[in-house]
Amino acid sequence: RHPLVLLRARLAKMGIRKAAELRTWPHGRQARACGIVTHRQRPLTAKDTVFVTIEDETGPINVIIWNDLFERERKAIVESTLLAVHGVWQNVDGVMHLLARRVANRSELLGRLATASRDFH
Predict the structure, then answer these.
(1) Cross-strand bridge partners of residue 35
(2) Helix H segments across 1-121?
(3) pTM here?
(4) What distance, in Å, lies between the first and last C-alpha atoms of the chain?
(5) Domains of the chain, earliest start first
(6) Half-sphere exposure at residue 95, Cβ-oriented, CA atoms within 13 angstroms
(7) DSSP 75-90
(8) Better pLDDT: 120 or 19
(9) What are phi and psi of 46, to 5 degrees?
(10) What would the pLDDT profile of 99-117 be if each residue is shown by its tens digit?
């Protein structure tokens, strides 16, 4: 079982939605998501943009983080194993991602569970 299954009731009380639910949402809606960080990327071709993939029990969520937010929240973005994201849901022609406005490290909710991510490739 995915670790977030055990946290779902708590996350729901915080207004955090499942990836499967977000995939049904229209473009431009405010959204909150939380997931285990599986990838962090900052490609040279994507100037001033960081891409993070988080995963909950229903699948992945691609997160776009602009440089100003990355600079303010670098520690949370780089060190989190469980990342909460509040932002705007983007859904254009089947391409979906969450444009981050705020992020928070929620790794403490995982306790001692070990996780690993692929970072900055």
Answers:
(1) 83
(2) 3-13, 19-22, 67-72, 74-79
(3) 0.89
(4) 28
(5) 3-109 (2.40.50.140)
(6) 4
(7) HHHHH-SEEEEEEEEE
(8) 19
(9) -110, 70
(10) 999 999 999 998 865 555 5
Better-scored residue on pLDDT, 95 or 118: 95
- Could you identify the residue written with the tokens 């989190």? 80
Under DSSP, is residue 118 helix (H, G, I), strand (E, B) or coil?
Answer: strand
**Backbone φ, ψ for residue 27 (5° rounding):** -60, 140
Long-range own/partner contacts, residues 1-4 (CB < 8 A, 24 or more apart): 1/57, 2/55, 2/56, 2/57, 3/36, 3/110, 3/113, 4/34, 4/35, 4/36, 4/56, 4/57
33-91, pLDDT tens digit by residue?
Answer: 999 999 999 877 777 899 999 999 999 999 999 999 999 999 999 999 999 999 999 99
> For residue 78, what are its two tokens?
């780089």
Residue 65, CB-side half-sphere exposure with 13 Å CA sphere = 30
Q: Which residues contact 116 (CB under 8 A, 6 or more apart)?
A: none
Tokens of 24: 């049904």
Instruction: Measure Cα distances from 79 to 6, 21, 44, 91 in Å.
Output: 22, 27, 21, 28
